[in-house]
Amino acid sequence: xxxxxxxxxxxxxxxxxxxxxxxxxxxxxxxxxxxxxxxxxxxxxxxxxxxxxxxxxxxxxxxxxxxxxxxxxxxxxxxxxxxxxxxxxxxxxxxxxxxxxxxxxxxxxxxxxxxxxxxxxxxxxxxxxxxxxxxxxxxxxxxxxxxxxx
Amino acid sequence: xxxxxxxxxxxxxxxxxxxxxxxxxxxxxxxxxxxxxxxxxxxxxxxxxxxxxxxxxxxxxxxxxxxxxxxxxxxxxxxxxxxxxxxxxxxxxxxxxxxxxxxxxxxxxxxxxxxxxxxxxxxxxxxxxxxxxxxxxxxxxxxxxxxxxxxxxxxxxxxxxxxxxxxxxxxxxxxxxxxxxxxxxxxxxxxxxxxxxxxxxxxxxxxxxxxxxxxxxxxxxxxxxxxxxxxxxxxxxxxxxxxxxxxxxxxxxxxxxxxxxxxxxxxxxxxxxxxxxxxxxxxxxxxxxxxxxxxxxxxxxxxxxxxxxxxxxxxxxxxxxxxxxxxxxxxxxxxxxxxxxxxxxxxxxxxxxxxxxxxxxxxxxxxxxxxxxxxxxxxxxxxxxxxxxxxxxxxxxxxxxxxxxxxxxxxxxxxxxxxxxxxxxxxxxxxxxxxxxxxxxxxxxxxxxxxxxxxxxxxxxxxxxxxxxxxxxxxxxxxxxxxxxxxxxxxxxxxxxxxxxxxxxxxxxxxxxxxxxxxxxxxxxxxxxxxxxxxxxxxxxxxxxxxxxxxxxxxxxxxxxxxxxxxxxxxxxxxxxxxxxxxxxxxxxxxxxxxxxxxxxxxxxxxxxxxxxxxxxxxxxxxxxxxxxxxxxxxxxxxxxxxxxxxxxxxxxxxxxxxxxxxxxxxxxxxxxxxxxxxxxxxxxxxxxxxxxxxxxxxxxxxxxxxxxxxxxxxxxxxxxxxxxxxxxxxxxxxxxxxxxxxxxxxxxxxxxxxxxxxxxxxxxxxxxxxxxxxxxxxxxxx
Lengths: 150, 783
Hints:
Chain A has three helices and seven strands. Chain A is α+β, with helices and mostly antiparallel strands. Chain A has one domain: START domain (Alpha-D-Glucose-1,6-Bisphosphate, Chain A, domain 4, 2-Layer Sandwich). In chain A, a hairpin with a 3-residue loop joins strand 4 and strand 5. The longest helix of chain A has 30 residues. Chain B is α+β, with helices and mostly antiparallel strands. Chain B has three domains: about 170 residues, Aldehyde oxidase/xanthine dehydrogenase, molybdopterin binding domain (Aldehyde Oxidoreductase, domain 4), CATH 3.30.365; about 180 residues, Aldehyde Oxidoreductase, domain 3 (Alpha-Beta Complex); about 300 residues, Aldehyde Oxidoreductase, domain 4, CATH 3.30.365. Chain B is about 30% helix and about 25% strand. In chain B, the strands form eleven sheets. Chain B has a seven-stranded mixed beta sheet, with helices on both faces. In chain B, strands 9-19-18-17-10 form a five-stranded mixed beta sheet, sandwiched between helices. The chains are: A alpha+beta, B alpha+beta. At the A-B interface, strand 6, strand 7 and helix 3 of A face strand 8 and strand 36 of B.
């Protein structure tokens, strides 16, 4: 499945970049994070709970920033498993400086889901993914657009 | 008298139902042994992947988890692979690569079932996904992803099998006035028995004896397989006891050995504690043997007047990642070459190629008696394609071509000797019962009004009762079957047989055979099966073989007893044995009905007053090697109405005329036919297991895999003709699978018939509303 979209963020590009490429910050917007373990600046491991319809699982995800071209482009490969299911996500993000306080983010994700969630939840997947995506980006936008508290 | 005895032909109520309807059956999951542990299995989410590592530490840290078994743990025991019944091998657990989704990857042994499941969830496997091939046609193309790296042969081709006269058939086609060709896909389906598979393995370390309670249709063969596979671990056949308790449906799915069985046995042997493994529904439908999955290209050559001349069939068989089918060794495509069906083809050539794909293994029967369903569907569909081509009524075309009753025993062009048949009689009865001529008139009138109604016929011939030892074996074990009968001093009887009921009613029907032969009431006859410590060796129940093979053994063993009983009768009646006759279920002095002895009197004498020089007791054993297979047949007619708005096919009427030779219990036969027809309806309209391009199963649960319920099932109308098998001791042919074999073509033919005026020649099953509605829309007749 391929997902893509654009997001206007009322924040300077450098700030957006540092938020989205910092595992500790960006995972605050991931759904139901159970734990985060940063191995090095390019690798981290995050455990999230996610569900599609009747199937819920705790996904243990290994995440790698495969490209980091500050301040405009990043690629991320995330691979993980829940019991009976596996997910692989290859994402790209481009940040364009609209002006000094506005950033345009273009993103796309290619997601492959295998196992139980694909079998049982396939026809619910699009709706579930859209919902999660909306929540994640609403969160990112809210956090980045909030006034900077020293 | 006959009714009191409950012999052959009586609708004796099923003895086993007394416990089943009270919920008192004893299934494998009812077996609870002291100290029993539970096993659960971690399965692959990927259809093809390299296992980089397996981390079991978190699972082992859970209190109550006693062990986690991976493929590497099995290597020192030489148990990471096991042989299949088709001379291939199958992974018990993978050491480096998984080949299909839901393949077993690791097993957890725990003190409780729930803890075992928690352990499975805690196993962390690092997979590297590999390219997947799910289409057998693509799998056979050069450069396709290789499924089986472990084989020397570096492609996905398993075997090529062919039968018939290729050159002669090609010539017949070249010379033919009419040739029709049809490609058909018979989709992968699953037996979906209500009871899933399971085992309780219990190893006694002191005695060195393994007792296995297992959902198996073939307990004796399983005992031998365990001895052969695990002999190097010290298991010997005299210390292996396989007990097949009550079984909640088998349909072929409980013939193979699954990795879970091996793991549970291994765990019990290592721990000396009983270990239970019961699979859940999703595991059963995802990983256990499937059925069908045949890609068929069939051609029929005929004269302009419809006389059928030659048949040419090319098939690709998808066997998944391992060839774990359960066919007789000599026939990797089963008895598919019954495909000439009820017609006297002069020439025929059939070839099948097996292919590996990243899908679960199998290719077993599903109430299909070794690929007979695929064959019957193909020929009966093809006959209708010919009928459309030459614009002839399909009933008339069949009547014109049937092998005539005078031709039996009939030698088919592909080598079978059909025992007996009267195909025209069965079709005529079906036509008369349903009112065929009237239906055709109604259809013509409705068609003028734009209403869609179709009539479909299937005049199938089956081949069951495997089989004669000269041609039939599984893993080298000949496909005889057996019966042992003991008549106790008080005239009560114990019958033990080598087959195993999964719901067929053996305790009743085999009792009736003995009742008929010995004149002892069926209520006084106990039938036992499924315990290898007590029952005589047999190959088990599948492919409709119980009555044709073990039924023959039972009748002959009873006749051996009657022979001895006759001598005792002569002794008691003080007559010459030549003057004794068996009449009205008694021995009597010829012409003197008052001088007679019942079998009960003789039984008592056999232990209390037997003739000097004769062995005491009254018992016999028979290992019956059938001289030929049996060939049940039937004609089914289905009437459908199609909703032009939704595309839904509604079965208005379905008349099934079956001929299974001598009928032992009409009520049980009717029940078999009702169940079989419903199982034939299922793939025709509902059931299919698909895979997406990544090998994800699309139909792993009963939301997506559509079993017909009482809502979808029409009112079946049954009727019969009786053409006994001339070679079978009681003339019976077997009926377990007839309806499943015959029904799909009747339904598909009816739907095509309803749409034939739109130019439709064929629709692949399952014929879903979506497929029909698309045809209606494409032709501008949808509402």
